[in-house]
Amino acid sequence: MYSLKTNSRKKIFTYNLVTNIAKRQIPILIFSLDNSKKQTLKGIYDVIFAINRTEDNGVYSEERNAEDVNTSIVVKENTYILDNILSIEIIEQNARLMKLQKNIGLIIIDYLQLIKTDTTIEDTIKRLKALAKELNVPVLILSQLSRELESREDNKPNLTDFKKSSAIVGYADTIMFVYRDDYYNEDSEKLYVVEVITAKNKYGNIGTDELMDIGNRYINIERYRR
Q1: Rounded distance between C-alpha atoms, residue 112 and residue 88, angstroms
Q2: Cα–Cα dist 80/26, whole Å
């Protein structure tokens, strides 16, 4: 089970993941509690066509556009978006059904605090963790962080920012944050650089990886520099 801070940058990161996974013919189920199905699909398409749509870029080509169109078709065929489901019980029911019918390989929930439940966030997390184990499918959960993050001097997120949702830190197998220094600092030397911070990883390493943001498409920064 994974947890990811939610706002536009985090959604964009998630849409990049969806694009890369779905085009490999791996079915993905998205519970879009925050946006409509149409808005979510548009966000994914914005990622797919990002580079060709970037203003004054010198890489546009008809060949690339044709490739992106083909990618968008494959991604749409392998991405199932449900935007009218809020309760944990209905999420569980639909996840089981879609696993049976479509053999989904990834479940995404956008986002944790919008799930309707009569109990606590801790209980919701436990149920989603159990669901991931039952279906043998990773569950990626977007989540809010404490607003104190925005007001402190160091805006880079860390595990203590789950102050009111500490159960996330306890139960999530992996916790990732997405950070852009140039969002907070006008003089940042890391223009358009996206830092993907793995703050907890039960089965691997922790640390920071850097990606380049090209109009919403996140690409390998070393590849970009070449």
Answers
A1: 10
A2: 11
CB 198, CB 208: distance < 8 Å: yes
Cα angle, residue 49 at apex, residues 43 and 50 outer, rounded to 5°: 80
φ, ψ dihedrals at 118, nearest 5°? -90, 0
Q: Tens digit of pLDDT per residue, the chain (226 long)?
A: 655 544 478 899 999 999 999 999 999 999 999 999 999 999 999 999 887 766 555 555 777 788 889 999 999 999 999 998 889 999 999 999 999 999 999 999 998 989 998 888 899 999 999 999 999 999 999 998 877 777 788 889 999 888 667 788 999 999 999 999 998 888 999 999 999 999 999 999 999 999 999 888 898 877 655 5
Residues 6+ apart with CB under 8 A from 162: 143, 145, 146, 168, 169
Reported pTM = 0.90
Q: Does domain 2-225 have CATH number 3.30.70.330?
A: no
Cα 1 off chain centre by: 13
Can you tell me the distance from the alpha carbon of 225 to that of 175, in angstroms, rounded to the nearest whole number? Answer: 28
Q: How far apart are CA 210 and CA 97, in angstroms?
A: 37
Question: What is the chain's length?
Answer: 226
- How far, CA to CA in Å, does 223 sit from each of 61, 73, 181, 218? 19, 26, 20, 11
